[in-house]
User: What shape does this take?
Amino acid sequence: MTSLRALCLLTCLSLLPGCLFASITVPLDTDVTNTTLGAKTGEAYYHSILGLVAWGDAGTQAAAREGGIGTIRHMDQHQFMVLFGVYYKQTTIVYGD
Assistant: This one.
């Protein structure tokens, strides 16, 4: 019975990667082989606590405005999470001219 519990626990933990801490950046582009980043960078983000309260604007337009970008060439998304989402921050990063 103990080995069955251990197996269940390991299975559950394997389904929750980064449950204690995660800092991940992923591209928001489907054609990354022909990407040019541009001279400017802009970031916009939102925060969330316990999934109950959230504030901010992580939109593409807000990130472009913050970086003074008129033409977007590439976008990334960065996610930062602590303790099962007790604190969560999502950042949209745009590159362009």
Notes: Residues 33 and 76 are 14 Å apart (CA to CA).
